[in-house]
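To close the section, here is one more complete example, presented without commentary so you can practise reading it yourself. The ligand is magnesium ion.
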Amino acid sequence: MSLIEVNHLYKEFQVAKRQAGLWGALRSLLRREYLTKTAVRDVSFAVNQGEMVGYVGPNGAGKSTTIKMLTGILVPTSGEIRVNNLIPYKERQKNARQIGVVFGQRTQLWWDLPTIESFELLKQVFQIPDHRYKQNMATFADILGLDEFLNTPVRQLSLGQRMRADIAASLLHDPLILFLDEPTIGLDVLAKERMRQFITEINRERGVTVILTTHDMSDIEKLCRRMILIDNGQVMYDGELVLIKDLFGKERVLIVDLEGETDSFSVAGAQLVKEEGNRKWLRFNRELTTASQLINRISEKYEIKDLTIKDTEIEEMIRHIYEKGLAVYEMNSCRIENNKF
Ligand SMILES: Nc1ncnc2c1ncn2[C@@H]1O[C@H](COP(=O)(O)OP(=O)(O)OP(=O)(O)O)[C@@H](O)[C@H]1O
Ligand SMILES: [Mg+2]
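Output:
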Protein backbone atom coordinates (compact mmCIF):
# COMPACT_ATOMS: atom_id res chain seq x y z
CA MET A 1 0.00 0.00 0.00
CA SER A 2 1.31 3.42 -0.92
CA LEU A 3 1.80 6.28 1.48
CA ILE A 4 -0.71 8.45 -0.38
CA GLU A 5 -3.63 6.94 -2.25
CA VAL A 6 -6.17 8.91 -4.22
CA ASN A 7 -8.98 7.06 -5.97
CA HIS A 8 -11.63 8.51 -8.28
CA LEU A 9 -11.53 11.80 -6.43
CA TYR A 10 -14.06 14.52 -7.28
CA LYS A 11 -14.59 18.00 -5.90
CA GLU A 12 -17.52 20.09 -6.97
CA PHE A 13 -18.22 23.66 -5.95
CA GLN A 14 -21.58 25.37 -6.15
CA VAL A 15 -21.03 28.80 -7.55
CA ALA A 16 -23.72 31.48 -7.71
CA LYS A 17 -24.72 32.19 -11.27
CA ARG A 18 -24.37 35.85 -12.13
CA GLN A 19 -26.78 37.34 -14.57
CA ALA A 20 -25.89 40.15 -16.90
CA GLY A 21 -27.02 43.76 -16.33
CA LEU A 22 -28.75 45.55 -13.50
CA TRP A 23 -31.98 43.65 -13.93
CA GLY A 24 -30.04 40.39 -13.89
CA ALA A 25 -28.20 41.44 -10.71
CA LEU A 26 -31.54 42.24 -9.02
CA ARG A 27 -33.04 38.97 -10.14
CA SER A 28 -30.04 37.02 -8.79
CA LEU A 29 -30.48 38.77 -5.46
CA LEU A 30 -34.04 37.55 -5.21
CA ARG A 31 -33.54 34.09 -6.52
CA ARG A 32 -30.04 32.67 -6.44
CA GLU A 33 -29.23 30.20 -9.14
CA TYR A 34 -26.25 27.94 -8.77
CA LEU A 35 -23.91 26.28 -11.20
CA THR A 36 -21.84 23.23 -10.39
CA LYS A 37 -18.14 23.70 -11.01
CA THR A 38 -16.16 20.46 -11.08
CA ALA A 39 -12.68 21.46 -9.91
CA VAL A 40 -11.33 17.90 -9.57
CA ARG A 41 -12.70 15.19 -11.81
CA ASP A 42 -11.98 11.50 -11.30
CA VAL A 43 -8.39 11.95 -10.17
CA SER A 44 -6.46 8.85 -9.11
CA PHE A 45 -2.82 8.45 -8.19
CA ALA A 46 -0.59 6.89 -5.58
CA VAL A 47 2.63 8.18 -4.11
CA ASN A 48 5.22 6.06 -2.35
CA GLN A 49 7.32 7.04 0.61
CA GLY A 50 10.33 9.13 -0.36
CA GLU A 51 9.02 10.22 -3.75
CA MET A 52 9.09 13.82 -4.90
CA VAL A 53 6.21 14.45 -7.29
CA GLY A 54 5.47 17.55 -9.35
CA TYR A 55 1.74 18.33 -9.63
CA VAL A 56 1.51 20.59 -12.62
CA GLY A 57 -1.22 22.30 -14.63
CA PRO A 58 -2.48 25.65 -15.87
CA ASN A 59 -4.38 28.18 -13.71
CA GLY A 60 -7.62 26.73 -12.38
CA ALA A 61 -6.61 23.14 -13.20
CA GLY A 62 -7.48 21.90 -9.71
CA LYS A 63 -4.04 21.67 -8.13
CA SER A 64 -4.71 23.65 -4.95
CA THR A 65 -8.10 21.98 -4.57
CA THR A 66 -6.39 18.57 -4.62
CA ILE A 67 -3.78 19.70 -2.09
CA LYS A 68 -6.51 21.08 0.16
CA MET A 69 -8.30 17.73 0.12
CA LEU A 70 -5.05 15.90 0.89
CA THR A 71 -4.46 18.15 3.86
CA GLY A 72 -8.04 17.82 5.11
CA ILE A 73 -9.02 21.48 4.58
CA LEU A 74 -11.63 20.50 1.98
CA VAL A 75 -14.02 17.55 1.97
CA PRO A 76 -14.16 15.58 -1.30
CA THR A 77 -17.50 15.40 -3.11
CA SER A 78 -16.76 11.75 -3.83
CA GLY A 79 -13.87 9.36 -4.12
CA GLU A 80 -11.25 8.26 -1.66
CA ILE A 81 -8.11 9.73 -0.13
CA ARG A 82 -5.77 8.01 2.25
CA VAL A 83 -2.70 9.72 3.60
CA ASN A 84 -0.62 7.21 5.52
CA ASN A 85 -3.84 5.34 6.12
CA LEU A 86 -5.75 8.34 7.48
CA ILE A 87 -8.72 9.95 5.82
CA PRO A 88 -7.62 13.58 5.94
CA TYR A 89 -10.93 15.40 6.38
CA LYS A 90 -12.16 12.90 8.97
CA GLU A 91 -8.97 12.85 10.99
CA ARG A 92 -7.72 16.33 10.38
CA GLN A 93 -5.76 16.78 13.61
CA LYS A 94 -4.02 13.43 13.34
CA ASN A 95 -3.25 14.10 9.70
CA ALA A 96 -1.81 17.51 10.58
CA ARG A 97 0.82 15.80 12.70
CA GLN A 98 2.15 13.76 9.82
CA ILE A 99 2.12 16.43 7.13
CA GLY A 100 3.70 19.82 6.54
CA VAL A 101 1.99 22.35 4.29
CA VAL A 102 3.17 25.51 2.57
CA PHE A 103 0.85 27.67 0.52
CA GLY A 104 3.16 30.04 -1.32
CA GLN A 105 0.33 32.49 -1.89
CA ARG A 106 -0.56 32.84 1.76
CA THR A 107 1.42 32.50 4.95
CA GLN A 108 0.49 30.02 7.66
CA LEU A 109 2.30 32.12 10.25
CA TRP A 110 0.83 34.62 12.68
CA TRP A 111 0.95 37.89 10.80
CA ASP A 112 1.56 40.31 13.67
CA LEU A 113 3.93 38.26 15.81
CA PRO A 114 7.71 38.20 15.58
CA THR A 115 8.62 35.20 13.41
CA ILE A 116 10.20 33.27 16.29
CA GLU A 117 6.92 33.39 18.21
CA SER A 118 5.12 31.57 15.41
CA PHE A 119 7.71 28.82 15.68
CA GLU A 120 7.24 28.67 19.44
CA LEU A 121 3.47 28.48 19.06
CA LEU A 122 3.88 25.60 16.63
CA LYS A 123 6.13 23.88 19.15
CA GLN A 124 3.22 24.04 21.62
CA VAL A 125 0.58 23.02 19.08
CA PHE A 126 2.51 19.95 17.98
CA GLN A 127 4.07 19.30 21.39
CA ILE A 128 7.52 19.11 19.87
CA PRO A 129 10.08 17.95 22.46
CA ASP A 130 12.56 20.66 23.50
CA HIS A 131 15.67 19.02 22.13
CA ARG A 132 14.07 18.22 18.78
CA TYR A 133 12.77 21.77 18.44
CA LYS A 134 16.24 23.15 19.14
CA GLN A 135 17.89 20.76 16.71
CA ASN A 136 15.46 21.58 13.92
CA MET A 137 15.62 25.32 14.57
CA ALA A 138 19.41 25.20 14.45
CA THR A 139 19.45 23.24 11.18
CA PHE A 140 16.81 25.39 9.48
CA ALA A 141 18.26 28.67 10.75
CA ASP A 142 21.58 27.61 9.33
CA ILE A 143 20.46 26.42 5.90
CA LEU A 144 17.70 28.99 5.41
CA GLY A 145 19.41 31.93 7.12
CA LEU A 146 16.51 32.56 9.50
CA ASP A 147 18.54 34.40 12.14
CA GLU A 148 18.47 37.73 10.35
CA PHE A 149 14.70 38.09 10.74
CA LEU A 150 13.59 35.92 13.67
CA ASN A 151 12.57 38.97 15.67
CA THR A 152 10.80 40.71 12.82
CA PRO A 153 7.00 40.49 12.64
CA VAL A 154 5.88 38.26 9.78
CA ARG A 155 4.05 41.08 8.03
CA GLN A 156 7.33 42.97 7.66
CA LEU A 157 9.21 40.08 6.03
CA SER A 158 10.15 40.18 2.38
CA LEU A 159 8.52 37.51 0.24
CA GLY A 160 11.71 35.43 0.16
CA GLN A 161 12.12 35.64 3.94
CA ARG A 162 8.47 34.80 4.49
CA MET A 163 8.72 31.74 2.27
CA ARG A 164 11.81 30.53 4.14
CA ALA A 165 10.02 31.03 7.45
CA ASP A 166 6.96 29.19 6.16
CA ILE A 167 8.87 26.15 4.98
CA ALA A 168 10.84 25.97 8.22
CA ALA A 169 7.57 26.17 10.15
CA SER A 170 6.05 23.36 8.09
CA LEU A 171 8.92 21.03 9.01
CA LEU A 172 9.40 21.72 12.71
CA HIS A 173 7.31 18.75 13.79
CA ASP A 174 9.18 16.29 11.50
CA PRO A 175 6.33 15.46 9.13
CA LEU A 176 6.44 12.41 6.88
CA ILE A 177 4.97 14.28 3.97
CA LEU A 178 5.36 17.84 2.71
CA PHE A 179 2.76 19.52 0.52
CA LEU A 180 4.12 22.58 -1.23
CA ASP A 181 1.66 24.69 -3.19
CA GLU A 182 3.78 27.07 -5.29
CA PRO A 183 6.74 27.30 -2.92
CA THR A 184 8.83 29.43 -5.28
CA ILE A 185 6.18 31.86 -6.51
CA GLY A 186 7.48 35.41 -6.76
CA LEU A 187 11.01 34.53 -5.65
CA ASP A 188 14.07 35.80 -7.49
CA VAL A 189 16.42 33.39 -9.22
CA LEU A 190 18.77 33.02 -6.27
CA ALA A 191 16.01 32.58 -3.72
CA LYS A 192 14.39 29.95 -5.95
CA GLU A 193 17.64 28.07 -6.18
CA ARG A 194 18.06 28.19 -2.41
CA MET A 195 14.52 26.92 -1.89
CA ARG A 196 15.07 24.06 -4.37
CA GLN A 197 18.28 23.01 -2.65
CA PHE A 198 16.53 23.00 0.68
CA ILE A 199 13.65 20.88 -0.62
CA THR A 200 16.11 18.44 -2.22
CA GLU A 201 17.97 18.13 1.05
CA ILE A 202 14.84 17.55 3.09
CA ASN A 203 13.76 14.82 0.70
CA ARG A 204 17.18 13.17 0.57
CA GLU A 205 18.36 13.48 4.17
CA ARG A 206 15.06 13.05 5.97
CA GLY A 207 13.24 10.90 3.44
CA VAL A 208 10.29 13.33 3.47
CA THR A 209 7.81 12.61 0.68
CA VAL A 210 7.12 15.78 -1.29
CA ILE A 211 4.21 16.80 -3.50
CA LEU A 212 4.70 20.14 -5.08
CA THR A 213 2.71 22.36 -7.39
CA THR A 214 4.36 25.05 -9.41
CA HIS A 215 4.13 27.05 -12.60
CA ASP A 216 7.87 27.10 -12.90
CA MET A 217 8.92 24.09 -14.93
CA SER A 218 12.51 24.45 -13.83
CA ASP A 219 11.31 23.62 -10.30
CA ILE A 220 10.03 20.33 -11.66
CA GLU A 221 13.10 19.68 -13.76
CA LYS A 222 15.42 20.25 -10.85
CA LEU A 223 13.35 18.48 -8.22
CA CYS A 224 11.10 15.77 -9.58
CA ARG A 225 11.52 12.57 -11.50
CA ARG A 226 7.81 12.13 -11.70
CA MET A 227 5.21 14.59 -12.87
CA ILE A 228 1.44 14.48 -12.70
CA LEU A 229 -0.05 16.86 -15.21
CA ILE A 230 -3.62 17.97 -14.70
CA ASP A 231 -5.88 20.12 -16.77
CA ASN A 232 -9.50 20.98 -16.18
CA GLY A 233 -9.54 18.78 -13.08
CA GLN A 234 -8.33 15.68 -14.91
CA VAL A 235 -5.04 13.83 -14.97
CA MET A 236 -3.48 14.15 -18.41
CA TYR A 237 -0.18 12.48 -17.66
CA ASP A 238 1.38 10.65 -14.78
CA GLY A 239 4.86 9.38 -15.26
CA GLU A 240 8.52 10.07 -15.51
CA LEU A 241 9.57 13.46 -16.72
CA VAL A 242 12.22 11.89 -18.96
CA LEU A 243 9.53 10.14 -21.00
CA ILE A 244 8.01 13.47 -21.93
CA LYS A 245 11.43 14.76 -22.73
CA ASP A 246 12.13 11.74 -24.93
CA LEU A 247 8.94 12.28 -26.80
CA PHE A 248 9.88 15.84 -27.62
CA GLY A 249 13.62 15.36 -27.40
CA LYS A 250 13.92 14.69 -31.10
CA GLU A 251 13.09 18.30 -31.74
CA ARG A 252 15.64 21.05 -31.72
CA VAL A 253 15.53 24.71 -32.50
CA LEU A 254 18.19 26.47 -34.55
CA ILE A 255 18.29 30.22 -34.02
CA VAL A 256 20.14 32.19 -36.69
CA ASP A 257 20.96 35.88 -37.10
CA LEU A 258 21.19 36.70 -40.78
CA GLU A 259 22.59 39.57 -42.82
CA GLY A 260 20.64 41.40 -45.52
CA GLU A 261 17.10 41.05 -46.79
CA THR A 262 15.36 37.98 -45.28
CA ASP A 263 11.63 38.66 -45.71
CA SER A 264 10.77 35.50 -47.60
CA PHE A 265 13.13 33.28 -45.66
CA SER A 266 12.59 29.54 -45.63
CA VAL A 267 14.78 26.45 -45.55
CA ALA A 268 14.08 22.84 -46.48
CA GLY A 269 14.01 20.43 -43.55
CA ALA A 270 13.00 22.93 -40.88
CA GLN A 271 9.92 24.85 -39.87
CA LEU A 272 10.13 28.58 -39.30
CA VAL A 273 8.45 28.94 -35.90
CA LYS A 274 9.30 32.52 -34.99
CA GLU A 275 11.05 35.54 -36.48
CA GLU A 276 12.14 38.90 -35.19
CA GLY A 277 13.65 40.88 -38.05
CA ASN A 278 16.69 38.99 -39.20
CA ARG A 279 16.63 36.54 -36.31
CA LYS A 280 14.88 33.28 -37.24
CA TRP A 281 13.83 30.34 -35.09
CA LEU A 282 13.83 27.05 -37.00
CA ARG A 283 12.45 23.86 -35.54
CA PHE A 284 13.80 20.60 -36.91
CA ASN A 285 13.80 16.91 -36.13
CA ARG A 286 17.33 15.84 -35.42
CA GLU A 287 16.68 12.32 -36.60
CA LEU A 288 15.76 13.63 -40.05
CA THR A 289 18.06 16.63 -40.47
CA THR A 290 21.26 17.72 -38.80
CA ALA A 291 22.02 21.25 -37.74
CA SER A 292 25.03 21.37 -40.03
CA GLN A 293 22.92 20.39 -43.06
CA LEU A 294 20.56 23.23 -42.23
CA ILE A 295 23.39 25.67 -41.74
CA ASN A 296 24.86 24.67 -45.10
CA ARG A 297 21.54 25.17 -46.83
CA ILE A 298 21.04 28.57 -45.23
CA SER A 299 24.54 29.78 -45.99
CA GLU A 300 24.07 29.04 -49.69
CA LYS A 301 21.67 31.97 -49.81
CA TYR A 302 22.37 34.09 -46.72
CA GLU A 303 25.22 35.24 -44.60
CA ILE A 304 24.91 33.87 -41.07
CA LYS A 305 26.11 36.32 -38.39
CA ASP A 306 25.40 34.18 -35.36
CA LEU A 307 23.68 30.94 -34.42
CA THR A 308 22.49 28.93 -31.42
CA ILE A 309 21.02 25.43 -31.17
CA LYS A 310 18.56 24.63 -28.41
CA ASP A 311 16.66 21.58 -27.20
CA THR A 312 12.94 22.09 -26.90
CA GLU A 313 12.39 23.50 -23.46
CA ILE A 314 10.17 21.75 -21.00
CA GLU A 315 7.82 24.76 -20.83
CA GLU A 316 7.28 24.48 -24.52
CA MET A 317 6.56 20.76 -24.26
CA ILE A 318 3.94 21.35 -21.59
CA ARG A 319 2.37 24.20 -23.55
CA HIS A 320 2.22 21.89 -26.51
CA ILE A 321 0.34 19.31 -24.46
CA TYR A 322 -2.06 21.94 -23.09
CA GLU A 323 -2.79 23.48 -26.45
CA LYS A 324 -2.83 20.57 -28.81
CA GLY A 325 -3.74 17.73 -26.49
CA LEU A 326 -2.17 15.76 -29.33
CA ALA A 327 0.42 14.04 -27.28
CA VAL A 328 -2.04 13.11 -24.57
CA TYR A 329 -3.05 9.89 -26.21
CA GLU A 330 0.56 8.76 -26.58
CA MET A 331 1.32 9.95 -23.09
CA ASN A 332 -1.46 7.93 -21.56
CA SER A 333 -0.31 4.85 -23.36
CA CYS A 334 3.05 5.14 -21.66
CA ARG A 335 1.53 5.80 -18.26
CA ILE A 336 3.64 4.25 -15.59
CA GLU A 337 2.34 2.11 -12.79
CA ASN A 338 2.97 3.97 -9.59
CA ASN A 339 4.52 1.06 -7.81
CA LYS A 340 7.48 1.14 -10.17
CA PHE A 341 8.81 4.20 -8.38
N1 LIG B 1 -13.98 27.74 -2.86
C1 LIG B 1 -14.26 27.69 -4.16
N2 LIG B 1 -15.50 27.97 -4.61
C2 LIG B 1 -15.81 27.91 -5.91
N3 LIG B 1 -14.94 27.56 -6.88
C3 LIG B 1 -13.69 27.26 -6.51
C4 LIG B 1 -13.28 27.33 -5.13
N4 LIG B 1 -11.96 26.97 -5.07
C5 LIG B 1 -11.58 26.72 -6.32
N5 LIG B 1 -12.60 26.89 -7.19
C6 LIG B 1 -12.56 26.68 -8.66
O1 LIG B 1 -12.03 25.39 -8.90
C7 LIG B 1 -11.13 25.39 -9.98
C8 LIG B 1 -9.78 24.86 -9.54
O2 LIG B 1 -9.17 25.79 -8.65
P1 LIG B 1 -7.73 25.54 -7.99
O3 LIG B 1 -7.49 26.64 -7.05
O4 LIG B 1 -7.67 24.15 -7.49
O5 LIG B 1 -6.78 25.69 -9.27
P2 LIG B 1 -5.19 25.65 -9.35
O6 LIG B 1 -4.83 24.53 -10.26
O7 LIG B 1 -4.61 25.64 -7.98
O8 LIG B 1 -4.88 27.01 -10.10
P3 LIG B 1 -3.67 28.08 -9.89
O9 LIG B 1 -2.56 27.57 -10.73
O10 LIG B 1 -4.26 29.32 -10.45
O11 LIG B 1 -3.36 28.15 -8.44
C9 LIG B 1 -11.10 26.83 -10.48
O12 LIG B 1 -11.97 26.94 -11.56
C10 LIG B 1 -11.59 27.63 -9.31
O13 LIG B 1 -12.25 28.80 -9.74
MG1 LIG C 1 -3.44 26.97 -6.93
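Once you have examined the C-alpha coordinates, check your reading against these statements. The chain has two domains: 44-245, 250-315. The chain has a mean pLDDT of 88.
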